[in-house]
Amino acid sequence: MSAPLPATGSALLLTGATVYTSWDAAPRRSAVLAVDGKIAFVGDEAEALKMASDANVLELKGAVIYPGFVDAHGHLEELGLSREILDLRGKSKEQILKLVQDAAAKSATGAWIRGWSWDQNLWPGKRFPTAVELTAAAPRNPVVLTRFDGHAVWVNDAVLRLARITPETADPDGGRILREESGRPTGVFVDTATDLIVKVTPQPSPAERRRLIAAGAKACAAAGLTGIGDASGYDRNGLELLRAMAREKALPIRIYATVGAETKELASILSGGPIADGRLTVRAVKLYADGALGSRGAALLADYSDDPGNRGLLVTPPGKMDDVALACARAGWQLWVHAIGDRGNRLALDSVEKAFAAARPRDPRFRIEHAQVVALDDIPRFARLGVIASIQPTHATSDMPWAEARVGPERIRGAYAWRRFLAAGVRLAGGSDFPVERESPLLGLYAAITRQNLEGQPPGGWYPDQKLTRREALRLFTEDAAYAEFAESRRGRIEAGFDADLTVLDRDIVSDTLSPPEIPGAKVVVTIVGGEVVFRAR
């Protein structure tokens, strides 16, 4: 019989639930006792009560407890912002223009109008929109609407004037200004060209940023997430804001944050060593190799199948990627490389291989974020180099209506190729890239298992040979996500000594008794981080 635990500290006892102690364990009816933020015991309820008779008891009859779900790749501040500006997700161009027109009617002349998540691939003809259309809807207000992947913006004439964009404005390295045949900018800016617009767009104050981060974190907790990998790439000011929030216990979830590779203070940040402050950890650098597939900015080894002559964009020159990879390897920091196209992925792997050969780091766990279209010959290189493929299952089901048109029937075999990665021995990690996709991990689990949209299309799944099992999908958001942030000895499982990070749902999403279409409908009952209830359904 276990001895009673000291009465000091906080103790939380969860009873009446079925428990998955890990992605590969059989479920069992157990009590879970957390003391001082750690798992103290998993087993018989009566024994747990003897160990901590003064524990707060949370009765969870009929619920299912999982290791805390972690989204390995999201954007916290942007998630908060997306809830305060126009929501364009899934809308037609006509619907978007009406939203802008209505917003302009309620706004003072000159007030900025922002929106997020338009996608021309959903519209008839799939053509990019124009400033002329947006100006007609809001002639007296600057309007900036961000594409759903964050890699393009659509603006009106007021913004073009403020940014002093003319036919003579050159495309920046790693970016593209879409133009009419005459050379006149159309109002759409891709990848680094968006910086021309950011320079004139009002930026949030530190207090506003704090509010946005807090709102994003709250939304994640409500979605059942106990932690996220924040791919925003913060500068020093952003890091200090996060540290202040962590010290003030204003972060309900754990944040594993990245520093932007373009940050002027990068060298001094690296030399200062990793940061661990309460629920905040910073030990990774975020770098962009290329753009996005939907806006044809992803860098490809051959022309786009639906746009001859275009091979996409390199956002960061290969020499710069080499330098950043080597600096991270030498400083003991992890590198995250955003790479979507097969050329972007190959160049990222090349930079990693050079850095490892020069610095010989111990257990670096460099990551490629998205790893979306990969040449088949390059997949084994991930395993050989120990590079983690950080994937977002819902990207596949969002992109499937047009992805093959972009790359053709041969290259699509290396796209969203999760089963091929596993077969090659590659470590994965699962995320959503919110707010590009919804922050709910249940949607990622469903997409990984079915490769279908929420309407169950296509029948049998899109390239169903690349599906994951339910257990593998659960691993993406638990043990794999923990490994991807060097936390597998503390999180990703429910066992004594591990952090008491738990996601509690109203149903068993792993059992075959629940049909896959029912998974997205599961409800989050409780989210617990470090033994603290940070969300509880009413």
Report a brief summary of the structure.
The chain has 18 helices and 23 strands. With 538 residues, it is an alpha/beta fold.
Describe the structure.
There is one protein chain. The protein has 538 residues and is of the alpha/beta class. Among the domains are: 1-68 and 493-538, Roll (Urease, subunit C, domain 1); 86-198, Diaminopimelate Epimerase, Chain A, domain 1. 30% of the residues lie in helices and 24% in strands. Strands 6, 13, 14, 15, 16, 17, 18, 19 and 20 form a nine-stranded mixed sheet that branches. Helix 2 (76-82) crosses helix 7 and helix 3 crosses helix 4. The longest helix is centred in the middle third of the chain and has 18 residues, at 342-359. The chain is globular. The two termini are 37 Å apart. The model has no long low-confidence stretch (mean pLDDT 96).
The CATH C-level name of the domain at 1-68 and 493-538 is: Mainly Beta
Helix content: 25-40%
Structural class: alpha/beta
- In quaternary terms, these chains amount to single chain
Number of helices: 18
Shape: globular
- Computed over alpha carbons, the radius of gyration is 23 Å
The rounded distance between the terminal residues' Cα atoms is 37 Å
The averaged pLDDT comes out at 96
Largest sheet: 9 strands, mixed
**How is the CATH topology of the domain at 1-68 and 493-538 named?**
Urease, subunit C, domain 1
Topology at a glance:
Blueprint: E1 11-19, E2 28-35, E3 38-43, H1 45-51, E4 56-59, E5 64-67, E6 69-74, H2 76-82, E7 86-87, H3 93-106, E8 113-118, H4 131-137, E9 143-147, E10 152-155, H5 157-162, E11 175-179, E12 185-191, H6 195-198, H7 206-222, E13 225-234, H8 236-247, E14 254-260, H9 266-271, E15 275-277, E16 280-288, H10 318-331, E17 334-339, H11 342-359, E18 367-370, H12 379-385, E19 388-391, H13 393-399, H14 403-411, H15 418-423, E20 428-430, H16 441-450, H17 470-476, H18 479-483, E21 502-505, E22 524-529, E23 532-536
